[in-house]
Specification:
The chain has 240 residues and is α+β, with helices and mostly antiparallel strands. It has two domains: 91 residues, Translation Initiation Factor IF3, CATH 3.30.110; 103 residues, 2-Layer Sandwich (Alpha-Beta Plaits). It is built from four helices and nine strands, in the order βββαββαβαββαβ. The strands form two sheets. Strands 4-5-3-6-8 form a five-stranded antiparallel β-sheet. A four-stranded mixed β-sheet has the order 1-2-9-7, covered by helices on one side. A hairpin with an 8-residue loop joins β4 and β5. The longest helix has 25 residues. The chain starts with 6 loop residues before the first strand and ends with a strand.
């Protein structure tokens, strides 16, 4: 029946990795509106090591000097592993007074200097030596390691293609069920997401360098977890 107005709307949730809301659209005659999730998994290309440099002393100057020594130890570790210290990034720097809260006057009893450092590595073979040497140098109480994807364009494109393929397949099924033929795409929107895997902070080790050199590093021979890029596609197709 040519005069029959068919408006079909469907939202297909194919993945729990991403949650995307469909845009508000006015239903149009002879159209099908569908939504679908797609994903693409790939090996990470970047390791991110994060840690804090922190020192506490009776005076702000002494705390600053201690933090400066730790920063120099960090630079020495980086140079020893063929890493330019300039590649390490400072997130924040703070100098905070420490108070005696048991004293009614809240007397200042010391100062704490803290700065956050993040380091991106493309060469994953350097992760073990760098984290171990930072721990042995007593630079930081803890370190965290995460893997990410710097070059995301290709992965996003493949995730979008997967989501669109699923959306079109759903639309074709609906069209066939209604006795119609799926036509051209008339509208689409895309959202992409990246799932970053984080490894729990690694506590500072107390073993000496000689003992550490005898065994493998904590990350040796293990593979980094894949990075999952997901996409949500909303698409409207014309019905023939």
């Amino acid at each position: 029946m040519k005069n029959t107005i068919v408006t079909l709307c469907a939202v297909l949730l194919l993945s729990t990795l991403s949650i995307a809301q469909s845009p508000t659209l006015n239903p149009l005659p002879n159209t099908i509106f569908v939504g679908a999730d797609g994903k693409f998994e790939t090996a990470p290309d970047t390791a991110l090591i994060q840690f804090n440099i922190s020192a506490q002393a009776d005076s702000a100057k002494d705390a600053y000097d201690q933090a400066a020594k730790q920063a120099e130890a960090t630079r020495q570790v980086l140079r020893a592993n063929g890493i330019d210290p300039k590649s390490a990034e400072i997130g924040f720097f703070s100098v905070n007074p420490q108070y005696d809260w048991k004293n009614p006057k809240h007397k200042v009893i010391g100062y704490q200097v803290t700065t956050s450092v993040s380091l991106k590595l493309k060469d994953f073979s350097k992760i073990g030596p760098v984290t171990q040497q930072l721990a042995d140098a007593s630079v930081s109480e803890s370190q965290s390691l995460s893997y990410t994807l710097d070059s995301t364009d290709e992965a996003k494109s493949k995730a979008v293609a997967d989501a669109y393929r699923r959306a079109r397949a759903s639309a074709q099924s609906l069209a066939a069920a209604s006795g119609r033929t799926l036509g051209e795409l008339s509208y689409a929107s895309v959202d992409t997401f990246e799932n970053i895997r984080v490894v729990a902070p690694m506590p500072r080790r107390a073993m000496p360098m000689a003992m550490a050199a005898q065994g493998p590093t904590p990350t040796e021979e293990f593979s980094p977890q894949n990075v999952t890029v997901t996409a949500h596609v909303n698409a409207m197709f014309v019905l023939k």
